[in-house]
Amino acid sequence: MEFTIDQQLAIDTLNKNLLVSAAAGSGKTAVLTARILGLIANDTQPVEVDRLLVLTFANAAAAEIRARLRAALSQRQRQNPADSNLRTQAALLNRAQISTIHTFAIYVIRRYFAIAGTDPFFKIADLSEMELLKREVMDQLMEDEYAAPNNTEFTAFVERYGGTRTDDKNVPEHVLALYSCAMNIQFYE
């Protein structure tokens, strides 16, 4: 692959952390792979691949980087079987932190669960579980608000958005819709 000037600059820039950001299909994976290969297969000062942190937004990109590195290291080993660094890098590749940001965060939390104060066996909820949890929280919130004495603000909100029936499903739907909108705003807090 022939790289653009900017891509080659990202590959060749050394002794710095680097953020590569570009549109889908623009060659980010190839650039990151070439950069990593340049660092780990360096003849004078190779960096051990398991000392790098490579984060992507997609599992497929992380898997592709790892596969491309494995293939490139294998090819270089065939060309230069006496190179002990290439053997070492190939052996360390399985331990390398090449993953999505989410996967790395999970790794850190599980590894340092005692410091984080979390259960090491925590589980990431899938979308259907998240919807159920939102509904349970909403049901409990509605129950608590209806039970609270002199809750004039809540009563006014229900009268405004509750529809024609007193216990209409519109109120929870409005709150969940607002929540969904807020989650799509960059700095919603």
Could you characterize the architecture of this molecule?
This protein is mainly alpha-helical. It has two domains: 5-116, P-loop containing nucleotide triphosphate hydrolases (Rossmann fold), CATH 3.40.50.300; 127-183, no CATH class. It is built from nine helices and two strands, in the order H-H-E-H-H-E-H-H-H-H-H. Strands 1-2 form a two-stranded parallel ribbon.
Low-confidence stretches: none
CATH fold-type name of the largest domain = Rossmann fold
Instruction: Give the SSE string.
Output: HHEHHEHHHHH
Largest sheet: 2 strands, parallel
Helix fraction? 55-70%
Would you tell me the structural class of the helices and strands? mainly alpha
CATH architecture label name of the largest domain: 3-Layer(aba) Sandwich
The count of helical stretches stands at 9
Overall residue-averaged pLDDT value: 90
CATH class of the largest domain: Alpha Beta
Query: Beta-strand level of the residues, as a percent range?
Result: under 5%
Work out the radius of gyration.
Answer: 25 Å
List how many beta strands DSSP finds. Answer: 2
Can you give me a brief rundown of this structure?
The chain has 189 residues and is mainly α.
Write the layout of secondary structure elements.
Layout: H1 5-12, H2 28-40, E1 53-56, H3 59-79, H4 84-92, E2 97-100, H5 101-111, H6 113-116, H7 127-147, H8 152-161, H9 170-183
Parallel strand pairs: 1-2
Helix pairs in contact: 1-2, 2-3, 3-4
